[in-house]
């Protein structure tokens, strides 16, 4: 741990791009095909999770599930169909990514989405803005376990404590904290005491991230 900002690790859906609602709608549609009705109580099992995890959750609840692999394929197909026309970067996302690149701070994308989905999103956000992309296929275990963030730090050759993870969901926050990263939540909602909470990327800049890693920026 150096106390210097060495990299920023970004979640994708709901953090950089406005796709979380599309994912929820895809899950609702596939659940309906399985004679299931999802409610807000199911959100923790759906948002920020790998497709395989959500497929398993739906299979356990469905009266006559067709199998986890088929459900997973339908989820990916339904999500891809919704984002095929393009996605909208969230306010402040492109500005922050470009600011990091200008300052020489690597950015990594750490997503629970399949690589197919990530590549579709990167057509809008720009592959060139990331030093590394970690998609669902790159780790055996996904969020809320720390593996995706640990992989990103390892490939970059960094201590996770020198990285800031930027997340929006409880699932992602849990993964980043377990990996040992300093963490920023952009959801604006309640978060653990060791997480810096802001209401959007417009409130985040490189100076703030550097202060956070140095320990000179208080949390909460």
Question: What does the model show?
Answer:
The protein has 220 residues and is an alpha/beta fold. The chain folds into 2 domains: 7-18 and 87-214, Rossmann fold, CATH 3.40.50.1000; 20-83, DNA polymerase, domain 1 (Orthogonal Bundle). Helices cover 41% and strands 10% of the residues. The chain contains 8 helices and 6 strands; from the N terminus they run βααααβαβαβαββα. A 6-stranded parallel beta sheet has the order 3-2-1-4-5-6. The longest helix is centred in the middle third of the chain and has 16 residues, at 68-83. The two termini are 22 Å apart.
Overall strand count:
6
Assigned CATH architecture of the largest domain: 3-Layer(aba) Sandwich
Mean pLDDT: 94
Termini gap = 22 Å
Say which CATH homologous superfamily of the largest domain is assigned: HAD superfamily/HAD-like
Largest sheet: 6 strands, parallel
Q: Number of DSSP helices? A: 8
Spans of at least 5 consecutive residues with low confidence: none
Rg, rounded, reads 17 Å
In spatial order, strands of the major sheet run 3-2-1-4-5-6
At the first level of CATH, what is the class of the largest domain? Alpha Beta
Helix proportion of residues, in percent? Answer: 40-55%
Going by helix content, strand content and strand pairing, the class is alpha/beta
Q: What proportion of the residues form beta strands (DSSP E)?
A: 5-15%
Q: How would you spell out the order of helices and strands? A: EHHHHEHEHEHEEH
Kindly give the count of domains. Answer: 2
């Amino acid at each position: 741990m150096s106390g210097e900002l060495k990299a920023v690790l970004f979640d994708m859906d709901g953090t950089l791009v406005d796709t979380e609602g599309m994912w929820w709608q895809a899950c609702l549609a596939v659940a309906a095909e399985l004679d299931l009705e999802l409610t807000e109580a199911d959100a923790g099992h759906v948002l920020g999770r790998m497709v395989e995890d959500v497929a398993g959750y739906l299979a356990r609840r469905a009266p006559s599930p067709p199998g986890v692999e088929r459900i997973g394929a339908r989820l990916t197909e339904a999500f891809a169909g919704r984002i095929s026309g393009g996605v909208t970067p969230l306010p402040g996302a492109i500005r922050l990514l470009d600011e990091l690149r200008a300052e020489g701070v690597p950015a990594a994308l750490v997503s629970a989405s399949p690589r197919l989905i990530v590549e579709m999103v990167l057509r809008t956000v720009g592959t060139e803005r990331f030093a590394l992309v970690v998609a669902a296929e790159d780790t055996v275990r996904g969020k809320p376990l720390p593996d995706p963030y640990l992989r990103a730090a390892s490939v970059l050759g960094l201590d996770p404590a020198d990285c800031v993870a930027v997340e929006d969901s409880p699932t992602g926050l849990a993964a980043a904290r377990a990996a040992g990263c300093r963490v920023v939540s952009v959801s604006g909602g309640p978060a653990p005491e060791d997480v810096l909470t802001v209401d959007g990327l417009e409130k985040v800049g490189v100076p703030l991230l550097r202060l956070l890693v140095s320990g000179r920026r208080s949390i909460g």
